[in-house]
Specification:
single chain; alpha+beta; 8-stranded antiparallel beta sheet
Length: 247
Amino acid sequence: MKTRTAISNNSFIKAPTVREGTKKAVLACLLLVVVCLVGCQSEDHLIVGKQMTQIEVAQTDTAEVLELLPEKGLLATAEAVSVYHKAGWSKELGIVQFNADDSLVKRKVYVQVRSELLAPPFSREKLYIYVQTILPADWLNEPYENESRMNIEIIRRCRELIINDSRPYEEDVKTVSMIGMARSALNEALLQLADRPREADQLSDPKGFPFDHTIYGKTWIKLDAQQEDIYTLKLTSTNWVDPVQTW
């Protein structure tokens, strides 16, 4: 009687083929590239944004602003300064307006555009707008129907102020491009608020008023009263794009 030799199941396990090994190597390389690209988009590159947070409306003066903002990319007029900074796939624009009488800051505008390559070849684009301004008493004392109507009108005025603040730099293509994006985002926000007036009270909510921008995707806009005459507007947009349909 012949004795059968037991064969281990492990003998049927196939060794990885060259093609499988190549795939794994390619995937590993892609992962490394993505990690490096994402790392390049760290907050350390947002130089202007960090400095703008130290500028206080109605408190910081012209000399302090000039010390805070980087000289590279800085443009100045008699009553304002503008600074542009680009690092990797991040672009920043800051505009600071001063009072003519005491040289204190009366408004600061900050626009940021970032691109993050998270799933090649698709990237996630982000738009961030921050406006803090002193509003004239006659604007705030107008007979509005309610608080929501007043907030909508303040956003409309902020959009006008941003456009006016950028006029001295209209020959600078970079400023025109960044302000153009901010204007487009605020235009869409005002249209959405006009179509959904019952939801306008969300402007003062922590998350803000949500809507879908035709270009910039999911968007939230928020308005806060810092003091009686100082208001802060924030808008954030996020969208996935391909290499062809970039912002």
